[in-house]
């Protein structure tokens, strides 16, 4: 949306009588709407947005306050970026790949199958050119994205029946997010992306036979272990899924410089807190789930091999279709390849030695 219309829309929605945002800024109090794709009370994903909003308010001494709207409250969960682009809200919270229908290259700013872990992803964003590519692609829609945290390595999914070979996947209805869903489709899975609150009812009713959501902490909070006690780890498709704060670029540019810095630094602080929360409470939840009889299993080797093959086909097709996908993929892989060698030599070794 063009800048003037955005300002009018934002000011009318926010202040009722003002026709531009200037009076709000002059009075020293700015109120923005902040819809999230996720249930705002959910641990991890919800904390990510509510603690970000509190941090911005505290750091700005109340000059910038953000009203959080839970997933679906102001706009549908998968329409947060659209709302921020159109000016329905000035700022939003989501994960980039929920808007990958606009541009497949966006997947790299969330996560891709057999891709980077959370710490590697931040390393690429900050030092490997990832943030610059993210800025370039979001600017086309008048958006600016800030990394605000990560779920860490997710679960491969909860299944009602054991997966002993690739054949067992064929015909399954599965809730799965991201490009992993495309890879699963090539192996005969009917992959569906349901918004979070719809996962449990669909799994319970039998509409889906398998579901991945996040990891032990959130999967337990959403009751997936009440449907089956079989959980596959890790998520080949989400080795580290990133969360974002997305801002309307015109609204952001209109902020005084110190408030711009506060938005950026609050997102950064929240990112550290969020990964710590996922790592700590996923561990606690894993122990509790095991006590309740949940079995954590790895997919058999032939399934992983098939998923790798299917992923390569999906990635090749997207790179051929979309030059921006190919461009971001090259930057991503330029770091992923040596990072894999580094991880095996250093982190991989310490994981082996301490167990
Ligand atoms: Ca997931």
Mind sketching the topology for me?
Blueprint: H1 3-15, H2 22-26, E1 30-35, H3 45-59, E2 64-69, H4 80-86, E3 91-94, H5 107-110, H6 118-127, H7 130-139, E4 143-150, E5 157-159, E6 173-175, H8 179-186, E7 190-192, H9 196-205, E8 210-211, H10 216-221, E9 230-233, E10 242-248, H11 249-254, H12 257-291, E11 295-298, H13 301-321, H14 323-345, H15 347-354
Parallel strand pairs: 1-2, 6-7, 6-8, 9-11
Antiparallel strand pairs: 3-10, 4-10, 5-8, 5-9
Helix pairs in contact: 3-12, 6-7, 8-13, 13-14
The structure holds calcium ion.
Calcium ion binds at residues 154, 177, 212-214, 238, 241.
Q: Write out the distinct hetero groups bound to the structure.
A: calcium ion
Radius of gyration: 21 Å
The CATH superfamily of the domain at 6-150 and 240-282 is known as Bacterial extracellular solute-binding protein, family 7
Low-confidence stretches: 1-20
CATH architecture of the domain at 6-150 and 240-282: 3-Layer(aba) Sandwich
**Secondary-structure element pattern, one letter each:** HHEHEHEHHHEEEHEHEHEEHHEHHH
Query: How many alpha or pi helices?
Result: 15
Q: Considering DSSP H and I runs of 4 or more, what fraction of the residues is helical?
A: 40-55%
